[in-house]
Structures are given as C-alpha cells and as structure tokens.
Amino acid sequence: MNVTVVGGGISGLAAAYRLRTRLGPDARITLVEQTRRLGGKLRTVELAGTPTDVGAEAFVLRNPAAVELVRELGLGDRLIHPQRAAATVRAGGRTVPLPKRTFLGVPADAEQVRPVLSAAAAERVAAEPDLPPLEIADDVAVGDVLAERFGRELVDHLVEPLLGGVYAGRADRLGLRATMPALVDALGPAGGSLTGAAARVLGTPDPGGAPVFGALDGGMAGLVDELRTRSRAEIRLGLPVRELRRVAGGWELEIGSPGRAELHHADAVLLAVPPPAARRLLEGAVPAAAAVLAGVEVGSMAVLSMVLPAGTTLPATSGVLLAVGERHADGTPFTAKAFTHTSVKWGGGPVRLRASIGRVGETELLRRDDADLLAAVRADLRELTGVDAAPVDWTLTRWGGGLPQYGVGHAAAVSAIERAVAEVPGLALAGATYRGVGVPACVDSARLAADRVAEHLLTRAHAG
Questions:
Q1: What is the pLDDT at residue 300?
Q2: pLDDT given at position 360
Q3: What is the pLDDT of residue 464?
C-alpha cells in the first residue's frame, strides 16, 4: 500500500502517524511539503537560548484530541499548563480582568461583563434573555446577530478580540454556525436566549479551576518531531505538488518545480493543505469540491516574540486583549491586537512576551517592515504596561494567507466539499479549513481523513 500525504503541518503529520498505526510497518507513506520545514503553524525557534513557539503555543483541553495524542506519543511528561494568572482586556480606555463566564465573548451571566461595558451597554446585555426567542434558520454573521441581541459594544469589547485571536478575522465576516456551533445547538434547549445558550455550553463552574489549555515544555517542535519519527514516513521537503490526477489503480502526482517535476504514483492521497492549494489540486479530480473551496477566504497575521532584559517586570497577568477601536492617549491606534506575557503565563525562563498583529483586511499594517512593527509594538507595550525595555532578542513571524476564514455559510460549504470528496475513492482532506482551526480540531480532522484512506486501502486489499 502506497499513500501520499500532501502538507507537512500538524494535520499532515498527524494523518501520516495515524496511517502508520492503521496500515502497519509495510505501508509506504510519503509526505510532501512545499516549504523547507515541517510543522506548519507549529514552529519553535530559539530566542536568547530559550525555545519559543512563534505559531500556536498551546491547545485547548475541552477537546481532548491533542492532549490524548501527546500522551499516546509518550510526551505526557512534557505537558504543562498555564500559571494561575488572570487574562485582561483593554476596552473603553481601561484594562480590566477578562470576564470568566463567556463563550468567545458571549456572556453566560450579564453581571460578569459589566466591568468591560458602559452602564447602558451592560443593561442591554442583561435584557437579552427577555427578548423574543432567537431562531437560527440560515447562517448569519456573528457580529450581526450578537449586536442585535446584546448591542455593538459587547461585540467590539469582547467578541471581536476573542474571535480575532482564534481566526484573525472580523466578527461581521465570520459565520455563527461555523465559529460557534455549540452555541447554536444550545439555543433550542436554552429557550432561544444566547445568554442561556452560553450558560449551557459552559456548564457548571468548576470551583477547582481545572486548566483550560495545555502546551509542551520545550515547545511544540517536540510534537512535530515525534510525529515525524513515529510515522516513519518518507519526508520530501521543498517540493510543491503541481497537479493531482486520477489514474487506473490510484493517483498520479506531479511533484517539483516547472521543467523538473517528477511523476509520483500513489494508491491513495490525503490533502492537508490550505484552501488555495486544495482548490488547485482538486480542480481536475473533484471539480465540485474545488469550486466550493474557491469561496473560502484566507487571512494573514504576524507574531512578534521577544525576550526582555533580566529584571524587567511584566504585569502579573497572562496577557491583554485589545478591543476594537482602542487608542493611545495621543489618539493613535494600537498596532497589536493582543499581548501574551509568556513568562508569566507559563513560568520559567527569561522574561518573554509575544504580540499578535493583524486581522483580515489589514494588509497595509502587515506590509510594514519588521523594525517598524517592533517600534510600534514597543510603543503599545509602553502605553499598556509602562514597560520600556529594549528586547535582548526578538523575531517577527509572518503567517501569510494560511488562516482559513469561517465566513457565513462555511458549515454548509464544508458539508458540500465533504460530500463531493466522499464520492471519490482513495482521497481525503484534512486541516484547519474544515471543522475547527485549533490543534485539537486539526488532530481530529487528520484522524478522520486517515481512517477514510485506511479503510479504502484495507478493503481493497482484502477484496484482492
């Protein structure tokens, strides 16, 4: 059995590992990645001698897929959780604790969000359960429906900064069904109240304060390396897949640069690539899926990571999110959309922090050069915390065009893609494009796609 996985991010690597566990030691698994490195949005670099994640730094534990994979790979002793430091939000010119009982900013208790809102906005939030029951027949934009139910201030002060951290998108362009499916599912049992639905999703408060996130001591590179080793896949880096064709008995892939491409045969193919690449490769093999993928927008953002001099004191919080429209005292807008006080949040090592920069539509911001963005972010940090120390080491990592946007109708689009691909034997898709952008969702997607491919190959082998 010969399987080719296209894409060397967490989804492709987890799929290759799952294929190995399903197909056994004799299967030939080839993983092709167009860049010179594995890991995709998982990237660990050294800053001032300290391993530093400049992409995804953690995974949520509500979905156990990532932590279960970590333990299955024997990395459980490296699992760490955040220190008990509260997060904050800058809203209305004030930095206040981030409300605890919200689901991506949707409050389960109106009293929790009062410190973030004006008095009038807080009263409007408190009145939401008394509004006529909400029914979501067709998909709607998150910003539209939440502004109608709670008021615009809640969207700008809480929902936008939280959603922006997950999707690098805008609430007015993201679909409710794709970004908050659990909230939509809970609406009926909650009597049509979004406040009640958020309370049902969040469940009973945990007085013990169980951790919400996990990470790996030494960085996410440990997960990437272990998946590579355990998959025993043939890794081919720096090679774009130019074309994918169905042929008798399987698939043919054209791999490499123009004029020097080679043909590679596979019994099955698993694509774990961003929407533009998936669309291009599926144009001939599954045109219906390619047509839908053409409508999936992608976003860009950047992460500025830095190490500050020893003795620098950061606020005793895990970080700060910035609400829409927040400005410096002189009226200029903030450049960063969020700061993570890394050394406070995770403990250990030198004084570290990271700033997230950019959302969909902020192309001019992301075109600024590295030194300019560093100066702007340092000005943000000075305004927010009073910290004015120059970094002893820093790096700016640009994540361009690889962040899928879950727009209005995205859930229906994914269902259409999945139906079209299901009709084609020996082909599967995985990744953040489909049913979740976090590490656990990517692991789930990889497992399902790998199982689809494995079942096809095993059934064919038994029939032969």
A1: 93
A2: 84
A3: 65
Structure tokens at 419: 């139906």
Locus of tokens 């939000």: 89
CATH topology classification for 102-201: protoporphyrinogen ix oxidase, domain 3 (1.10.3110)
The CA-atom distances, in angstroms, between 356 and each of 11, 301, 333, 336 are 23, 7, 15, 6
pLDDT at 211: 87
* 8 Å CB contact between 346 and 185: no
Half-sphere exposure of 418 (CA within 13 A, CB side): 15
At 463 the pLDDT is 80
Over the chain (464 residues), the average pLDDT of each successive run of 10 is 97 98 97 97 97 96 96 97 93 94 95 95 97 93 97 96 89 95 96 97 78 94 98 97 94 91 95 97 97 95 97 96 95 97 93 94 92 98 96 96 92 97 97 95 98 95 78
Residues 6+ away with beta carbon under 8 Å from 210: 61
User: Taking the model in full, what pTM does it have?
Assistant: 0.94
Q: Which of 258, 261, 252, 291 is nearest to 275 (CA)?
A: 291
What is the rounded distance in angstroms from the CA atom of residue 460 to the CA atom of residue 197? 46
Distance between CA 175 and CA 411 in Å, rounded? 8
Alpha carbon 192 to chain centroid, angstroms: 29
CATH code of 58-85+299-404, in short, is 3.90.660.20
Its CATH architecture, for the domain 2-43+219-296+406-463, is 3-Layer(bba) Sandwich (3.50)
- Residue the block writes with tokens 């038994």: 462
Give CA–CA dist 42/96, Å, rounded: 31
- Residue 363, pLDDT score: 86
**Per-residue b or e along 247-284, where b marks 16 or more CB atoms closer than 10 Å to that residue's CB:** eeebbbbbbbeeeebeebebbbbbbbbbbebbbbbbbe
Show me where the domains of the chain are located.
Answer: 2-43+219-296+406-463, 58-85+299-404, 102-201
* CA-wise closest residue to 413 among 231, 298, 289, 326: 289
